[in-house]
Amino acid sequence: MSIEENIKHVLNELKEGTTLIAVSKTRNIEEMEHAYDMGIRDFGENKVQELVDKYDKFHQDVRWHLIGHLQTNKVKYIVGKVHLIHSLDSIKLLKEIQKRFKAKEAVANVLIQINIGEEESKTGIYLSEMDELIDECAQCSNVNVRGLMCIIPKGTEEENRKYFRKMNNIFQELKNRSYENISMEILSMGMSGDYKVALDEGSNMIRVGQGIFGPRNYK
Ligand SMILES: *Cc1c(COP(=O)(O)O)cnc(C)c1O
User: Fold this and answer.
1) CB 12 within 8 A of CB 35
2) What global pTM score does this model have?
3) Ligand 1, residues 31, 67, 69, 113: which to mutate, most atoms within 8 A of Cβ?
């Protein structure tokens, strides 16, 4: 199917208030133009360098999402360019974001990435570390926590559902608390293979790459 058909198909599954991020990592500008022409304005990249390059080359009204792991030494490059950082996963990174955004009188919108499957190979904080990170976020005036993000372990639909449901429970529970600089509005979960289940379980932001652009070819 074409990029256009794929996008139509995914958009058909979305409820009002749900955002589709076209994950454009490894894709060229020409491929991305097809998505842009379909009205897509949210694009996701997992590498700072690629995001910054495309920021200069692509349309200015695009909202850029950093969905991959963010190294502290790269934060400075995305100030003023990134719309939402999905991958806050340490106090060290939080402090660097606070410092770099404050220096430019900007405010960073971030999601806390939770390693919900507690997989050693994956980034994201463990649930047991969440309260401490949230307490620190409340001290950071130039960081707004807008919600949560996760990448779940590979598994069956039933297993996927279990993790998404667990995330939604945490999200709902945090909504009932109140902190400075923290609001729980965005639950970023679901990728090409599992976004339907994620939507079922309360996701309001899905990140779809191959389901839009076709199989990825890492060169
Ligand atoms: C690559 C990536 C996606 C999209 O994956 P697809 O399988 O291509 O849909 C979503 N989220 C993150 C964090 C990614 O790195």
Assistant:
1) no
2) 0.97
3) 67
